[in-house]
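4.2 Preliminary Data

To establish feasibility before requesting continued support, the project team ran the inverse folding procedure on a target of 132 residues. The structure was first converted into the token representation described in Section 3, and no sequence information of any kind was made available to the design step. The complete token record follows.
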């Protein structure tokens, strides 16, 4: 989740250097910011609880993980906040189109929803490729 200026530089660099670039984003920023703020306490709580249940299945499981998950719950709080903060920093498809800018004759961009085997949306991808 790069700042807009840096994201634009990455996209421009790939285009200028004629290097293929594939970016996949599992999340889509469709939630209005006010809704995100309103549901933040609920979503944080759910993610914290989820991480408490998932920790025993992480391998290798260390004593430090157990301490910072169950005794001093730093890991669940950081996990929950990272997920929620990343969601609002995700670019929309319109944002991506704006970052890419004007079409080029020698480099093409494809921006489309990513689909799983059952045809369900699982985020989106940005694929840039030099024209051969």
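Position-by-position output of the design step:
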């Amino acid at each position: 989740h790069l700042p807009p200026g840096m994201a634009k530089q990455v996209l421009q660099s790939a285009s200028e250097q004629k290097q293929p670039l594939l970016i996949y984003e599992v999340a889509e920023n469709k939630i209005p910011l006010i809704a995100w703020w309103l549901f933040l306490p609920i979503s944080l709580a759910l993610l914290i609880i989820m991480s408490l249940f998932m920790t025993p299945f992480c391998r290798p499981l260390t004593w430090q993980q157990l301490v910072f998950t169950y005794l001093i719950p730093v890991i669940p709080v950081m996990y929950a906040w990272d997920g929620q903060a990343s969601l609002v920093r995700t670019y929309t498809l319109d944002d991506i189109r704006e970052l890419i800018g004007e079409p080029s004759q020698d480099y093409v961009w494809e921006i489309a929803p990513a689909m799983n085997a059952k045809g369900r949306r699982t985020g989106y991808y940005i694929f840039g490729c030099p024209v051969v």
